[in-house]
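Section: protein folds

Sequence with per-residue C-alpha cells
===
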Amino acid sequence: MSLQHSPHPEFLVSHLPVPLGAAILVWKDWVQARRRLDIGSVASWLAVFGLSVGMILAGSGVTLVWVFIIWGLLIGQVCTKRLRSDLSSWVLFRQLPFSSNAIILTDIASSVVGATVLCWLAYILCSLIGWKTNMAIVILVPGLILCLALTASFDIHRQSKTDALLAGYPARMGSVGVYLGLIVAGLPLTLVTWLSRWTGIALWITSLFGLLISLAFAYLMWQLAANQLNKIK
C-alpha cells in the first residue's frame, strides 16, 4: 500500500488495490490468508477438496448423507475462520464503518468462493477420469456452502459476549449452528433428490429449483446473523 501527501498536509491519501467500501474487507482477508498460510489451513482445504470428490461420487444413498454431514461441518469451520479472527479484535472490529450485513458477507466471501471452486474442480477431475458424478451437487453447491457459512456465522454471533470478545476469545460454532446448518443446507438437497427420483423431472431443472431454495434460506440466515451481530453489546 502506497501513501502520498494530499493537498492538506495534515492528511495522507492511501492507494488500495480495491474500491473504497466493503470490498476493502475482502482484500484484507486475501492479504491475511497469504500471510498466515500454514499446514493446518492447507490441510483443511485439501479435506474440503477430498470430501467434495466424495460428495460428487456418493450418489444419493446413505453414503451421501454421511459425507454431506462431515463436509458440512468442515465448511462451517473453514468459512468462519476469518470472521472469528476479526471478532477477536473486537475494539477495532466494532468501529468499522460498514453495515452488519456487509461485514458478514465480506468476511465469508473469499472462503465461500474458494470452497465452491474446489467443488467444481473436484467435478472436473472426476469427469476427466470418467467416474459417474452427481450433477445435482455441482449445481447446488454455491447455495449449500452459503447456507452452511451463514448459519455458522449466525451461531457464532448468537453466542458472542462483549467481555469475551474484548479478551480476544470469539465464540465457536456450537451444536445449534451444526444442526441448523445441516438442516438448512440438507433440505434443498433432499428435495432435489426426491423430485428427481419420483417425479421424472429433469435433474438439472430440479437442481436449479433447489439452488433457488438454498439461496432463499441463505438470505434468511444472512439477515438473522446480521441481527445477532447488532445485538452484541
